[in-house]
Structure formats: structure tokens, C-alpha cells
Design goal:
Catalyzes the first step in hexosamine metabolism, converting fructose-6P into glucosamine-6P using glutamine as a nitrogen source. Its EC number is 2.6.1.16. Keywords: Aminotransferase, Coiled coil, Cytoplasm, Glutamine amidotransferase, Repeat, Transferase. By secondary structure, the protein is an alpha/beta fold. It is built from 13 helices and ten strands. The longest helix is centred in the middle third of the chain and has 20 residues. It starts with 7 loop residues before the first helix and ends in an 18-residue tail after the last helix. It binds 5-amino-5-deoxy-1-O-phosphono-D-mannitol.
Length: about 350
């Protein structure tokens, strides 16, 4: 039920801090440590390469998950769009582990990959919001998102839940391999939940930004580098699917290789700046688009902010920034759709779960 909310999407955006805390509770043992099922732990220890398979927003969460597994757990990861993998399978490593990410657990493109890799005898783990779903039943292992039902077609709380569970999976594997972490993951996730709460209280500010930057535009660009690049893909998808504004997310460094040709007077460019090591470069990209007339909306993180930034996010651990930077992008999309009188929860031509290939 929506309760007092005008739309499920807004309710689900607001639920993100609660979901974060639920995930923290569900995945910790008595000593405030992350502890996963021993079979999942073993599967992660035994593999020489993880293949993440997903579609849409879940694919975008997978891109973030790759960073966690590679940086924290030292496992090479490939992330694949399910519909591509199915018909154009890459060369596999000797001991692959397949990780399916799917809110619904019913996405036909992902299922088709699961059927094929099972025929080949490879192990599979499904990360889903629906434990009894097809992808969950047919895989060897399941990790539950604990996000509660997601009704709006535009995925919001499932995306952040997927990223949090992927972080937990990576941390558990790192612990199993005796790799040292220089931070307390549950503590950092708790700080993320608090930061999300601050952000969901800033709806008026984001609504104003929507008026200032996206009111009449026909297109918009999202740029970022490293983790911010992955989130910019998600920001663009969110905006296009519910507001029908043509939106594209891409890596800041790719601008000069083509897309910059599209920048003209007033083109909105949403730039994310949450990563210290690329802050200088993304700021350079912002200058390049501004010099060509773009209306740049910079979303930075406390500690990296500069004069003129439109929105400053509370500081969280650098690996976990996607969990917070996505929130204003979800809200931007929501208000853009609302201002255009679009059907926010049921955008045209889309279904909540895509059960055809
Ligand atoms: O249920 P799934 O996570 O497998 O769904 C995958 C995509 O269809 C889904 O994320 C879609 O891209 C959303 N509408 C995005 O908001």
C-alpha cells in the first residue's frame, strides 16, 4: 500500500534507509560481523572468476559490485548484460561462478543464461528480492535483498539493496580469504543509512533543481568517472524511463570522443564528483561542457565540494558512494516525471518484470 504517498516510487525511495538497516541486521551474526552461509562462502573461495549477469538497473548494480569483489576480495569479475551473454557467450575461465542479480527473479533474459550455464555444469548464486522466484529456485544459492515489495516500475530501493548485498558478499569473501579490510563494513553501511535519511529529507531542494535544470529540456547527460560513471548510467536510465527525457550516461573521459558534439546552449549535464582520485579530471570535464554552454548540475561529496556545486552529499566511505549519490538522481527523475504529468509508477511501454526474451 502507498499509504499517504502519491506514488510507490517516492515511498520506495524513502524506504532506502530502512532497507539498509534491515540488510545490516539480516547479514550480521551476534558479534557484529558479516557472516554468510558457508556454502556461498565456499563457492566464492573456489571460483577463479565471477560472472555477474543482469539487466537494466540490476546490471548497473552489478557494475558497482564488480569494484567491491575486485578491490576487497581480490576476485576478477566480468559483468554482462543478460540478453547479450545468452547469444554471444564469452570464453569462460576454468572455475566460473555465476551471480545473477534480479529484483524480481523472473527476468527471462537472465533465466536463459542460467539454463545455459547449468547445462554446462557451472554453479550459480542469485541475488534477488523474491526468494521463491524462478532464478532463485533454479540457482544453487540465493541471497535475499530484504527490500520489501518494489511496485514502481522504476527500480530504486532494489538497486541500493543489491549494492549493499554485493558489498556484504565481497566483505565475507575477503574475510574468508584472510584479507584485511581497513574499515568496519557494517559501521560504514550504517553511516550510509544515515546519509540516505538526510537525502530523503532534501526533496524540496532536489525538486527545485529539477525545475532549474530539467524543466523544458528534451535531453540530458549524466557524467562521472569510476564509481560515479556507473551511477551516471543508472541516473540516465531512471530519468529516461519515467520522464521520457532522452538521457545518456557516460564516462567523463569519453566526452571528447564524441558526445561533446551534442552539447549546446542550455544542455543539462549532471556531473557526479564523489571520488577523490578523479575529482580533478571530472571537474575538467565540467569546465569543458560549461565552456560550450551546458547547464552543469554538479553533485559532489562533502570534502570534495567546490563553489558552484548544486548539491553536496554527506560523506560516506569512498567505495559506498553509489548508495548515496543515486538518491538525488532518483528524486530528479521522479520530479521530472511528475512535472511532465507522466505516469510515474507505470511508465509507457514498460513492465515491472520482463518475462519475455
Ligand atoms: O527484476 P530485474 O531486476 O531482473 O529487472 C531488470 C530490469 O528489467 C529492471 O531493472 C529495469 O531496468 C527497471 N525498470 C529499471 O528501473
Amino acid at each position: 500500500e502507498k499509504g499517504t504517498y502519491p506514488h510507490f516510487m517516492l515511498k520506495e525511495i524513502d524506504e532506502q534507509p530502512i532497507v539498509m538497516r534491515k540488510i545490516i541486521r539480516e547479514y550480521q551474526n551476534g558479534d557484529n560481523q558479516i557472516k554468510l552461509d558457508k556454502d556461498i562462502r565456499k563457492a566464492m573461495q573456489d571460483t577463479d572468476r565471477v560472472y555477474i549477469i543482469a539487466a537494466g538497473t540490476s546490471y548497473h548494480a552489478g557494475l558497482v559490485g564488480k569494484e567491491f569483489m575486485e578491490k576487497l576480495a581480490n576476485i576478477p569479475v566480468e559483468v554482462h548484460v543478460a540478453s547479450e551473454f545468452s547469444y554471444n557467450m564469452p570464453l569462460l575461465s576454468e572455475k566460473p561462478l555465476f551471480v545473477f542479480i534480479s529484483q524480481s527473479g523472473e527476468t527471462a533474459d537472465s533465466r536463459s543464461v542460467l539454463v545455459k550455464i547449468k547445462e554446462l555444469g557451472h554453479p550459480a548464486l542469485t541475488i534477488t528480492n523474491v526468494p521463491g522466484s524462478t532464478l532463485s529456485r533454479e540457482a544453487d544459492y540465493t541471497l535475499h535483498l530484504h527490500a520489501g515489495p518494489e511496485i514502481a516500475v522504476a527500480s530504486t530501493k532494489a538497486y541500493t539493496a543489491q549494492i549493499a548485498v554485493l558489498a556484504i558478499l565481497a566483505v565475507d569473501t575477503a574475510q574468508a580469504k584472510d584479507l584485511t579490510l581497513d574499515f568496519d563494513p557494517l559501521q560504514e553501511l550504517a553511516l550510509v543509512a544515515n546519509a540516505m535519511e538526510v537525502l530523503t529529507d532534501q526533496k524540496e531542494e532536489v525538486e527545485q533543481l529539477t525545475r532549474d535544470y530539467l524543466a523544458t529540456t528534451r535531453n540530458a547527460f549524466f557524467i562521472g568517472r569510476s564509481a560515479d560513471y556507473h551511477v551516471s548510467l543508472e541516473g540516465a536510465l531512471k530519468l529516461k524511463e519515467i520522464s521520457y527525457i532522452q538521457a545518456e550516461g557516460f564516462a567523463g573521459g569519453e566526452l571528447k570522443h564524441g558526445t561533446i558534439a551534442l552539447i549546446e546552449e542550455g544542455t543539462p549535464v549532471v556531473a557526479l564528483a564523489t571520488q577523490k582520485n578523479v575529482n580533478y579530471s571530472i571537474r575538467g570535464n565540467v569546465q569543458e561542457v560549461v565552456a560550450r554552454g551546458a547547464n552543469a548540475l554538479v553533485i559532489s561529496m562533502k570534502g570534495l565540494e567546490q563553489d558552484g556545486d548544486a548539491f553536496v552529499l554527506p560523506k560516506v566511505h569512498e567505495l559506498l558512494t553509489p548508495l548515496v549519490s543515486v538518491v538525488p538522481l532518483q528524486l530528479l527523475a521522479y520530479y521530472a516525471a511528475l512535472h511532465r504529468d507522466c505516469d510515474v509508477d507505470k511508465p509507457r511501454n514498460l513492465a515491472k518484470s520482463v518475462t519475455v526474451e
